[in-house]
Give the backbone structure.
Amino acid sequence: MTQKSKVVPLGVLLKNENVLDDMVDILDALHKYVPKKTSIQSVDICEESGATRTMDLQIHHFHHILLGGDQLTVARVRGSQGIVSNSYNGSERIEGFIPVIEDWHTKMCYMQVVWKRLYSTCSGYDGGTLFHLRNVINRRIVVTNVKKDLNSCEEFMELVTTAHVLSAAIEITKVDDLSGLSMMILTSNSQDHFDELATVAKNVCKEFCRVSYSSIPHSSSTSSDRVKEYAMESLSLGLFLLEFKDAIREGDGTRVLRCWKYLLIIFRVTGHTNYCLEALNLLTQYYYTLPPRYAEQMLWGRFVNSQGGPGQNISADLHMEHLNRLLKDAMTHLGANKTPQAIVSGYICVCFPKVIYTIPLELYYYQL
């Protein structure tokens, strides 16, 4: 997944996904891009008088397209397909789309789960909690509502997880500080270096990671070390976040699918029923319902590499959010010229983002 992805925006439709009729119109407009082959089949129909007549039916054979989106979009697509399921032919029934959930909005939902369990503004004096660590390092951009600043919350969680991993490694190896840990690993040869890292990582996961779940955060036992339990849960959830992000960044569909198996359990026990059902549906599609070709397309077509090169992949729904932001930024400069026709034509700016950023630079050099 190192090649640069080719993205072709399909334009702007002045429709609202929250309105069911508009959602059907959106799918109808997009369905014309689905490849199909039409055949005619003659059937005999028996009328009330007892006579029979021959009627020609159009049979549409589609090359199905995977239609990705967040959980709400996928649910709306299925609902729209159900509404028109009694239409005359396959095109009117919108049978050419296979709705598939994407990863970025799912990661946001996962971060909401983590924040609900571990982040509380009332724990400022409880050493080791996320809110306490936020105040200690003065990370004021970290907010309570993850949706308001997802990137800041992710970066903070990565920082805390890295600190927990290093602390656990120091505890496992019985060294004094980070410099001693580095010297112990770096002084060995290449093969021993890899083996030493693997051993330390295995012991850290074995001793300090937890995979069990308790409906009461951090256990209700009075004799338990709640500070250690909190740190272990923070480490476990943080490591899973790093795994999920790295799998997306590298475009590794196999690892992403493995993460979805764990997300299925997390969403189930935390009450996120809709995302739990979508996780179950995703796994069912890959292992059972989809043909092998579509299953592999769903596995490896979830990423967009807009820059090219290794480790530059992002989720397809995140790339769509970037295009939406680019279009909205272009619309803000229309002023009084903001008309429906101008908005529909504005997708050209999305198709050629390099042109938008190059023109001001060229004008600057021209003035010099």
Observations:
- The first strand starts at residue 36 and ends at 46.
- The mean pLDDT is 85.
- Strands lie at 36-46, 52-62, 65-69, 97-101, 303-304, 314-315.
